[in-house]
Amino acid sequence: MLKVLMGCFYLLVLVVFAFVMVKFISQRMKSTFKPRKSNVGYAAEINPKTAAPQLLNQILLMLPGENNEVLSRLSVLAEDGNQAEIDVLLICPTGIYLFNSINESGYVTGGEKDRQWYVLNEDGNKKAFKNPLDENRYNMQALLRRYPEIKEEWVFDYVVFSNRCGISDVHLETTSPVLNRKMLFETLRGQIAEQSVILTPERIQYLYNRLKLYTAGESTASLSLQRKADKPFYKGGAAKIHEVKVPDLTRFSPEDQCLKNKLIAFAKEQSQREQTTAAEVLDRETIEKLVNMKPESRIELETVQGMDKKRCENYGDLIISIIKQHDDETSNKRQ
Predict the structure, then answer these.
(1) Whose CA, among 92, 173, 270, 322, lies 20 to 30 Å from 127?
(2) Per CATH, the architecture of 254-334 is what?
(3) Domain NERD, which positions (predicted)?
C-alpha cells in the first residue's frame, strides 16, 4: 500500500513538473525576447511624447566639439505637400546628422526594403510601424529641397531605438546605422572622428539660425554662442552671428522695398556695362531672397538660393556693400 502511495506521489510530481515546463516553453516561443527594464529615470518635466528626442539631445550634447548645435522636432515642407518630421538634428564640423528616434519596447523585425517593420511586445502583441529608413530618406530629401545650400554629401542619418528593443533581426543591405540608444554615443563619436571637417563655425551657426525657425519651439539656445561668450573662439571676443528672419517673398516693409529697388537698379546698371540682361546679373526671385535674408558675409551670400559661384565671384562684394550701406542708412534714420 505504501509503495502505491509513493508511486502516485512521484507521478503527481512528474505531472506538475511537465506542466510547468510546457508552460515555460510555450511562453518562450510566444515571445523570444523579453525586454529588460529600463534604468533611465524620466524627469518630471519630460513629456512622454517627446521623451525620446530629449534623451537623444542629452547624449548629443556630450559629444566633443566647440561648435556643435542640436535641434529637436523640425517640421519641413516636403515636395508632396506633407510635413517631414525630423526628431533630432545635429550640426557639427563634420556634417549634418538626422536622427529618427523610436521609443518602443520589444523585439524588432524588418528589412531595408520592407514597407513596414514590426515590434513584438512582451505580451505577444505585434505592432506595425513605417520603415524608419524610408522615413529618413523622405526627411533628408525634404531638407535638401527646402535648403538647397545644404549638400547631400553633408547629411548622415541614424535610426535610434530605445534600450528596451532587441534589433538583432533587423536586416540591412547597406551601412545605414540602426542601433540602440546606449550604442549611439560611441558609434557617433567614432564616425565624427573619421570624417573630414566640412563646415566652418560660421556656416554651422548660419545653418542653425535658419533651421531653428522650423522647430517646435523647444530647442535650447545656441550652445556654441554660450561657449564663445565664456571662451571666445576668435581673438578679440565672441564673433557676432547674423540672425536671419523667416523668408517671406510676398510682403516688404518700406525699408525692404527700398533695398529691393537698389538691387534692381544695381542689376540694370551692371547689365548695361556688360551688355547683357538685368536678369542675367540678378533675377527677380534672387533679389527678393537677398532682401529677405540680407547676407552680411560671403559665407551667408553663398547660401542664398540663386547666388551661384559666378554671381558670388562677380557681384558678391558689391551686393554685400549695398546691403550694408542700406542697413546703416536705415539705422541712422531710426535714431
Answers:
(1) 173
(2) Orthogonal Bundle (1.10)
(3) 48-166
- Please tell me the distance from the alpha carbon of residue 190 to that of residue 321, in angstroms, as a whole number: 43
Domain ranges of the chain: 48-230, 254-334
Residue range 48-230 in CATH 3.40.1350:
yes
HSE toward the beta carbon, residue 118, CA cutoff 13 A:
8
Q: How far apart are CA 261 and CA 263, in angstroms?
A: 5
Q: Copy the grid coordinates of residue 301.
A: 551670400
C-alpha cell at 335: 535714431
Q: Do 96 and 154 touch, CB atoms closer than 8 A?
A: yes
User: What is the Rg, in whole angstroms, of the alpha carbon atoms belonging to the chain?
Assistant: 29
User: pLDDT of 263-305, one tens digit each?
Assistant: 999 999 999 999 999 999 999 989 988 888 788 888 778 777 7
State the Cα–Cα distance between residues 7 and 1, nearest whole angstrom.
Answer: 10
